[in-house]
Queue: 2 jobs
Job 1
Amino acid sequence: MKQTEIYDSAVIGGGVMGCTTALHLARGGMRVVLVERGGLCGEATGRCGGTLSLMYVPAILVPYAIRGRELWKDAPRWLGRDVGFNDRHGLDIAFTDADGETLRAEMELRAAAGAPIEIIDGNQARKIEPALSKDIVAAAHCAQDGHALSYLSGVFFHRALARAGVDIRVGTDVFGVEGGDRGFVLRTAKQSIRARRIVLAGGVWMRKMIGWFGLDVPIIGRVTQETISERMPPILASGVRVFRDISLKQAANGTVLVGGGRGSRWIEDADRETVELDPAVVNQVMMNALGSARRAVPALAVARAVRMWTGIEGIAPDNMPVIGPLPGTADVFTIGCQRSGFTAGPFMGRLLADALLGRQPEMPIFAPAFDPARLLSMAPVDRERGVPTV
Amino acid sequence: MNTAAPVVIVGAGPAGATAALSLAEAGISSVLLDDNGAAGGQVWRTGAADLGPPLAYTDARGDELRRDLKRHGDLIDHRTGHEVVGLFPDLRLWVLEGGETVTSLHPKAIVVATGALEVFAPVPGWTRPGVYGLGGLQALMKTSRVVPDGPVVLGGAGPLLRLVAAQLASFGAEIAAVVDAAPWPSSGQVLRLASQPGLLAKGLAFEWGLLRRGIPVHRGSAIVEVAGDEEADSVLVAPVDENWRPVDGPRRRLEARVVGLGYGVRSNVELTRLAGCEHTFSASRGGWHATRNRDMETTVENLFLAGDGGGIGGVEVALAEGVIAAASVSERLGQGDRLKTKAAKARGRMVDLVRFQDALADWSGVRPGILAGSTEDTIICRCEDVTRGEIAAAVAAGYTDIGPVKMNTRAGMGLCQGRTCTPALQAIMASETGRPLAEAGLPTSRAPLRPVPLKALAQLPLDEAVE
Amino acid sequence: MTRFRRTTPVQSLVSVTVDGRAMELPEGEVLAAALLVGGMGRFSDSVRVGEPRGPLCLMGSCFQCVAEIDGTPQVRTCRTAVRAGMTVALNAPSSASK
């Protein structure tokens, strides 16, 4: 690349949102650079459990999640590789009548938005997933669920992006962005990068990125902890969630992944290293999560944990994505901070790319509910009450 | 069981056991955790009592150490078969007992004394059964008096290579050859090694043990391939350059039913990494290790580190550091300076010992050429079957830090958590990028360090405060 | 084909089942050592390629010597003592992590 090359678009942040946006922009004919501080899909995307579900998302996002899940299923066609798509049933279970009622209310909203979710009782849940505990009183069931191998998505995106002609700059930390008469200049530890258009796809680091343009938005991080077991004989055939608590799944290679846990923390400063070392986070949340896992699936008592890690999701106070033009500076766009973003990610990226390429997106992407401008007047997250879930 | 101890020491090798004994001398009780069945670490490992005559070149101080620990049983709570699988910056420990139960300890001070790990250089065929670490072959002798049957070829560098060869030979094992990557030490190196005449004499004794048995030693050479049908039956030996990179030249194939490999040792950093200590790279001390001040304290307050875990220094340095760490802990706990004189003496000994260690590393410390001496198809990570070619491809794609390389290739993400392949992974990255070894970085370690039953973690008592 | 031999007499032997076969092994002996002397070399198959693997470090670090012991998978034989009546399955479905 020549020092003076001006890219049509610079995408900052190489998670699922940034990667798919860059991929489709390049396929649409733009000259694209993707700049990532670490490796592709090395943060929330690669660290999450790869759940593909319609049972997590705010109702308004259900149609997007349905399309996103279809895209993961269809990955060989658009990504060139199967990302270990596992077509499973999903179950969200409740141990108390009170939780069962809240579960029903939430799931009915998602069902009304198009998710094929039904409320069933404990016996019906155990018919679908015999490994479940007898203590379950109610469950939501969705036939469209499953997971993909999120931790391998970076490898597959890398190949597809390179083939599409995207200039991939991994290991490149962006310090700031300056506007100029010839577009923008990205300041990095290596050489500067020039671009006419900027897409900010920084996940939990979105607040910092938006700060480069003189704005402050109340995006904060939520720490999610994951524990993985060694390979085990088949125990779980479906994706299981304990309502507002943990998620449980068994991969094709036999490893069981336990994600989440009560007491997960909100953090201002998105420094993952610090979070991973904080024993308050590690110990208590992990114990809560593993306790819940055993309660939900008693057969897990014999499982052995081999590793734990954390990931951080960026979250807006209304729990809605941050996608659209950034107010105040033309040609700057954001994408990300979406609940259950792994599921819908490939679709959101494609929609944004279509909008930037001047095409008609399949579904609205510059929607008021996603607009970054809404955040400017929004109060920070109430950490006690959390964010709306549906 | 003494749960009132304010100090937990991890590792009952020379450093950790000495720290415990020194603390006991000052009247301070400690919990001494070790995963082995008996104290002594790798260097002073022992087996059941009825093994017959002692192993050749065995240091009697190991038995002395075990006797002393028993004698101070009132103050030293020595727990064998206990593995520390978690260590957090607030000094909380997770301890796995017998692979089944987990307890949490929360002492006022911790001395980490987990020693070293053997350094392996992957070459084609090194994954075949029949290839063992030098330390492993030695452990079989020490604990079980089990020795190879049939021709043995040992390859690597440093004192352990000679010691193991001489010990195996003393049991009548057929040592077909010793393949040493290092050349003869230079006269300057010999002169510096002579600053510790006792240690130099030990080394010469190992060398003499080989010479008088007529065991061929191929210097400036390395095992560059292990061949065989399913298990090893021969090795290929080739010359190496000054960086220990295999080069063209006469190659010879040697029959070998057992192959021993080992290129010295490196600090075991998994606990200090987990605790968030700062680490530095020092080629003369075995590569990466946690940084310490002169009181043996790491950058995490009240977390002390003694022995090879803080940079390779050998058993004499470990003994001295055990004393110094104990003195620092004693002062920190406000238990007075009863160990001050002893610690000052230990510090005095350290100066010369470290000089000796530098000379030893200068002569036989592992060079990156052999660590990256693998071919495209060589498996580097044995747990996840990751080849050198896959690692090189990740580096070529722009991944130049060890974290993203691991995530992209899965190298170092298996059951052993990278304990076996990390030095090779770092050297291959350095070789592929042309950057110094230190710039490849140090991988993150993650709890639990060993597989732990889920039910044990879920029932972990949060606060077994050790006060 | 054994590649190791014992240089001291065995004190007491106990019965152990290895891969469904009855074996007499020295009580209290390091299981990996006893299996090596007993002629076992291949302990497991690697996860991706399915290559034969055996013990490497013999000091608890490398996890290459794992076997299923009394129903628990992935137990390090170099950290396990021989007990009367124990059941050992080599080359059991191997494990890695995510």
Job 2
Amino acid sequence: MTLWLANLAIDRWRGRLAPNERHGADATPLALIGETAHGPRIEAVNAAGLGAGAEAGMMLADARALCPQIATAPADPAGDLAFLETFALWAQRWGPWSALDPPDGVLVDVTGVAHLFGGEATLLAEARRLLAGRGLAVRAAIAPTAGAAWALAHFGTCSGREQAILPADEDAAMRLADLPVAALRLDGDVLLVLRRLGLRRIGDLTRIGRDALQRRFRSRHSPAANPLVRLDQLLGRVPEPLLPVMAVEAPLVLRRLLEPLRHRGLLDRVVTELASDMARELEGRGQGARRLELGLWRVDGDVLLRRLELAAATRDPAHMTRLLAEKLGDVEAGFGIELVRLRASWTQPLPLTQSGFEATGEDHGTSLAACMDRLIVRLGEQAVRRPLPHASHLPERAQRWHPPFEAACAVQDELAFHARPLKLLDRAEPITVLYATPDGLPRRFRWRGQLHEVVRAEGPERIAPEWWRERSTARLRDYYRVEDEAGRRYWLYRLGLAGDGRGGMPQWFLHGLCA
Amino acid sequence: MPDRPPASPRFRVTPDPEHALPPTRASFIELGVASCFSFLRGASDAADLATTARALGYDAIGIADANSMAGVVRMHIAAKELKLRPVIGCRIETVEGLVFLAYPRDRAAYGQLCQLVSAGRMTTPDGAWQDKGMCQITLSMLAGHAEGVQLILLPPDDLARRFTIGEQTGKVVRLDGAALDAEVCGRLETILPQLTAQLPGLRHVAASYLYRGDDVTRIERLDALARANGLSILATNDVHYHAPERRPLQDVMTAIRHKLPVVRAGHLLHANAERHLKDPAEMERLFARWPHAIKAAREVADACRFSLDELRYEYPQERYPGGMTSQQWLEKLTWDGAKTRYPNGLPESVEETLERELALIGKLELARYFLTIKDIVDFARAQNPPILCQGRGSAANSAVCYCLEITSVDPARHQLLFDRFISEERKEPPDIDVDFEHERREEVIQYIYRKYGRHRAGLCATVIHYRPRMAIREVGKAMGLSEDVTSALARTVWGSWGKEIGERHVAETGMNLNDPHLRRVLRLTEQMIGMPRHLSQHVGGFILTEGALTQTVPIGNGAMPDRSFIEWDKDDIDALGILKIDILALGMLTCIRKALDLIENHHERHLALATVPREDRAVYAMLCKGDSLGVFQVESRAQMNMLPRLRPREFYDLVIQVAIVRPGPIQGDMVHPYLKRRRGAEPVSIPAPAPEHGPPDELSSILARTLGVPIFQEQAMKIALDAARFSSAEANRLRKAMATFRSRGKVDELEEMMVERMVARGYDRDFAQRCFNQIRGFGEYGFPESHAASFAHLVYVSSWLKCHFPAAFACALLNSQPMGFYAPAQIVRDAREHGVEVRPADVNHSLWDCTLEPVSGGVVALRLGLRQVDGLPEHVAARLVAARESGSFDSVGALQDRAGLSPAHLERLASADCFTSLA
């Protein structure tokens, strides 16, 4: 049985709206947009948009020319695929196994199943009903082979339900002879050649004879380029292997408690035990956890959830316990906790390693990943950052903060500057300076109430504003390295030149402290 | 046939009336100037640089583009116009990473420098063919060509950078006598003694005060280093643009060069905007501690006494029979040719014209030029089979050219203005364009290379510059606009020859003009339009010299093998007074020759371009119907529309037809009046001045033959001369102003002058305004009468062929593709409509080319050739035809066996329906 979700992207998007908004959304033309190298391109259109002339595959700019009021929303192909996978699992209610037919179809094996539902026609009716209830437009068909079912669902006329079922004893070749050759799931260029040769229907292909087709289409490797192979698959002469979808359960361990927990110490013990159970479970699968979910069910029905993300896949129960313990500080037990469950929602393969032969050889340090985990858990996601150099002439933009484990791209740059201070202030502090206008060296300056006499000065280093980011009235900076009478060194700058027409007299700032 | 693109825009200098006198001597001269001809590095053109220099008080300005001399002529002209002295130089960047400014002292040194750049551009250091646009100069090459050249070393930004150079140790040899190739690797301190030893012209090290933060330290260090090696520092500001406002454009150019958006270019951009032209006082202030650096710059500039005016042009010398001089030989050939052209006797007017022309040629010493062209044309005609060729352009104004059989415009029948071709006051060299069959033009080019040698003959360059579409795409990409936005903006520019991208265009796309980012992008795009991108080979402009060409201008390699071209384009050549020959290709000549051959073979009629029967009424009837698909020049939609209205009846009507559907007459609103007068709907009246200013038939000699309506370019110019009483200098200015599009101010002032003067003399204001609009529209697209006449000849011949031998004409047209306006499918359809049976390509009957197959009587059918099959290469078709010699094919398998065709090719033949004869 083929289930073709003809409007998957639009239906999913529609499903996310509130029920009362859906009717309005249907009336306005809407397109779902994906980004390509040439600009935004339409991935899917709703019925109103189709009526206005927009089509899938068109560039957004062209569609806007046809229909200026078309609304847009971003397309979500990854979400659609994930949905299709869960849908394939859900469709296993009708058959022992199902396979994906990307981008928007599912094949379910219903051999010998029809009698459980009261016949194939009833099966199809129920499928349509359930899917309509979920808000998905579907075209379904049942046939002896996957190819025939696909052809019927995509190209068979949907007027009567009888068209959607191909009984096993009927001659498939005759029944499908009127379908166009595109129903054979062929590549675009093969379809073009067939069209040029004047072969438009499947019936034409069967009439023309196998020899001719075999001579003309010689590709053996890809069935999608060989109409003869596809025809045989359709008629069941050649097997067509499918890849079934199988559910994978996330590792889950739980403890039901006879007496509800009200004390923290006991909770910690339970969590420790759960952690070792989970470690055993993961070891059995050869995986390590990246994301853990701890669920605490209270007696009064409330559920508390705590989530934990790890920087590297791990099976170490002590590490997991320690991190989870930090998260339990604010748990309100109420009348007691009766069920504790630990689930690893994201795992990665982690092969078994043999620990060192000599136990004394074990080092007692912590890996960087574990250290980062602890810091993140204690301080929060946003608090752990690493600076990486960034190419910019402005000193405060010459480095950026990145998450700790982001890969740093190797940069080989000549030092664009001569000297930079050891300490750069986040925000430059305004100071008053005595200097010879218009661009003389500073002689004396006052910073934070203290007067400094300049003994030595070097500069100016002129850094012009980044014109593509800043307004055209932004002023340049002239940086000076100065040393005062006590031997302290500072990094000052003057914002602008007197008489550059972008403001009054230039202001001075202190930006850093050298040595 | 589509027009040739307009030449690259010349940024013109507008001299300030305050600066009428030459400037006083400045204390400093800027030598490190990179103009926009350091492609995508310099952001200002020569005109801006020169104007700024003059405004700042310089009396001379240097120019030094990276490994190129492409921009020196423009700087020369711009500086001369502003009364500055241009100091010509080049910035040599060697493969070892060293950078020098090279300023030649005299002509010989300049020749050496040109040879150095040519050597770097023509061969790699290993001796292989160098890629187009690349230049690799090694230090030893520089040492070998540095006689008389003043070198200035530009130190790297990071003085700790290490270099590896070859060491010259003549004293140490290996045991077998070979010289030892040692290498020195080290920082600037280590290699500087070596450089000084190898390059005797190296006397200075450049120092720049660029506000790097450690400038004083750095310059002191360089000063000490220089002095330790017996050199001196020289002040320069490493100029990349004329004013600091150009910094964003220079940053965008850097981003484009590195194929990055500006936000990611980071340290590739300069930190500040100091690399602009500063005034001498400012430079003195910056270099107050090192006054000897300022003086050094002045000394180097003073020591360069070379000027481009010294490139006295030496035309190739030849020896003529009987020891005659070139002028005598030319006269002999002319009178002989006149006898052939006028077998019934030379008309007196023509005789006078010839004498006048020959006298002028003798005075300006241009005889050798004409003889060279005649030699090339004779070579082409002497080939077997002869190559059809015809002269065009302003050369068609010359009766001498007609007698020498270079052009085919009969002076007895058309009014020729020899002044358009050569005039004494113009001081410009003449320009003869000759069209050849496009498929055989290569033979002519190779002949020229063979005769003169690659070192004495070279093709001109064309400067490919940024046009609006390309500019908005590149600038938009660098500034982070997405591709659909830039495409939308680019599409609003009409055609690829559009000239600007203004607010009107942006409003069309519906984008918000208030967005400051978008406004910034548009402003940058405007600055970018017109900047050169790279050089490319000109269509066919050759220059020939007596001595080595590389001593005059550097030569670089083209993209095609065995093609090389000089670095100057044809405007530069004209400005320097160097003679140029244009060897052009015309697809219609190939088509005509093929048609004539087919007619000879199938219809037993021997015809040549000159012996086609003239004034055939059936031909004109066909043209009156507008049935002109495939006919030269009149096949476009606009022309097809015009033909039934103009109804040509004689040859002169064709001349007008060719010239009338052009921007000039259309813009001047002269087309409808002409048509009305032709129809008789309007009386033919020639505008006349008021009686007190001039005779009433002042303009009749010019306008009579076109019913009182100016259509040709020189008619409009003559009106300016006669009716508005322009002096020839003013007329020259008018002509020049028309040729450029940037000089809008100039055009307006000339407009006022012309219109007012005509009105003052009693002409109708409306007529005067329309005349001027027409002149404005002529610009680069106007057709002089002689040029229209040469083209009209081809129009007539091709339409005669189409009228009387449609099958042969269609066959020849298909065989000469790509050319013309229409695709093969339309040519075939048109042939069918004229009753020609067109048979499809067939494996048993077709050759590579389309052929004619006799049907019965004198009727022939057109068989399409295998060249029309999409994706079938010529060698495969040749194999097929060869295999067919032993008998036709009877099955597809036979094709595979006997001709060895691969299944892919068989599929292509099948898709093209070539197997019908097998069924």
